[in-house]
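Regression check, magnesium ion case 234:
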Amino acid sequence: MLKVEGLAAYYGDFQALENVSFELPDSGVTALLGANAAGKTTTLRVISGVLPATAGTVTLDGEDITQASSEERVRRGIVQVPEGRKLFGTLTVEENLLLGGFSRRKDGKSRERLDRIYSMLPKLAERRTQLAGSLSGGEQQMCAVGRGLMADPSILMIDEMSLGLAPVIVTQMFGFVKEIAAEGVSVLLVEQHVQHALNAADRATIIEKGVTTHSGTSEEIRNDPKVREAYLGA
Ligand SMILES: Nc1ncnc2c1ncn2[C@@H]1O[C@H](COP(=O)(O)OP(=O)(O)OP(=O)(O)O)[C@@H](O)[C@H]1O
Ligand SMILES: [Mg+2]
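Current build output:
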């Protein structure tokens, strides 16, 4: 289980996170929701270790990893799919996927993982030799999530998965995420599509201006009057 408690973080003098606390169970989908600039991406960056926490703790299975390097966290199974996908456009789909498995290159299971991802996302198999830069938006997002899976994550954090995708692709991607979670990966989804995210997620946490204000089951969050007013227009 991953637990973050009282996280604070800065960009220079600007305090982006003030008090972020929530827990991720060992499997299932958890949504991290909030308005633009609330601190969602920053929270993922602190959990993945690319931005240091100035206060608070990140605990993985009871062990304090607040000071661990980002490489160490990837080795421990914490993997982030970045916002904006960040694929290598001049490499093929397969080359991008294989790069995702770099941290696990010594275990000899890259091929096995690749085949598994192709069977879950047949579209990627069809496109394996195509340059990533020439994929459609939805295909790029699949490739980015596939690349994250190549690292054999126990925690997969996906930032704005549905951004810019057609509704039918969004539904497909959420279905795929549920499948991954059912196999024992804990998925943390950062989303602006609150309704969609709550449908896909088991649990949700809401962040406002760098402070987490609500956490609960999707059902609890959906029925919270304040949440309904602020995020669901009801
Ligand atoms: N590299 C940076 N340098 C300075 N300020 C930053 C930087 N990255 C983010 N911020 C600021 O930190 C705050 C939180 O940003 P963050 O990207 O975490 O928000 P977010 O919740 O992911 O928003 P969005 O939904 O728009 O992606 C914002 O006010 C943003 O302007
Ligand atoms: Mg963001």
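Comparison notes: The chain has two domains: 1-77+153-234, 84-150. The mean pLDDT is 92. No diff flagged against the previous build.
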